[in-house]
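Shipment paperwork, digital attachment
Item: protein structure file
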Amino acid sequence: MPRLIQLNLFLFGALVLCPMMARAQGDAMTELYGTGVHLYFAGDYQNADLVLTRVVDAGSQDPRVHYFRGLAREHLGGDSEFDFATGAQLEAEGARVVSVGSALSRIQGAVRSKIEKARRDARVENRLKQMMQEDARRKMIPQPSVVPDAAPPPPAEVDDPFAGDGLRSNESVAQPAQPTVPDTEVNPFSDEPAPATGTNPADNPFGDSPADNPFGDPPAGDNPFDAPSDAPATDNPFGNPATEPSGASDIENPFGF
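Attachment content:
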């Protein structure tokens, strides 16, 4: 029983002290990083390199530590590109989110261009790595088997009262037979007489025989007026006998009184 109590106390102390130690270690690393940055801006590149190397060896994931150690080694003539690439990789992976832009705001010139190139290359490489990992995970997921779609059912027949009465595309309408027309053409230059037909000529619609006179009158002669009678003609058209002229002159009495 006492051993169990001691074990519980030990575990409790470890749980409490470990975060405190980690936080204390993190604070110490942050403090050493700040010291190395001050030494760099003071122009003491040798000591800045030594201090920042201690922070890197302690396992710091702060990309700023590698950037400033690379800057110090740039002035010392050392290999600065390795530190720039390592810091850019840590920044792209996001192991620790820090403000890199504000930390490097005082760094300008050609050396700043080297740092920016390393940051850009690291972002591209990290994005490609993520795409490859996503593609590998997608391939590991079992895909459902593709089932072919069933053929659609045939369409139902439409109730058409006129179905079957029409013509198909390959059928044609039977044309009625044309009546035979006898050849009635007459050659005007032929010596043979024209054939007789059973019908009257079309030029005489009233037939060949003359029509009977319904009034029974004899046919008129050549003189449409009656022949003159044997009586002599008189000067009086009214038929009265002519009288001898009286003693009086016709000029004096034109009315015959």
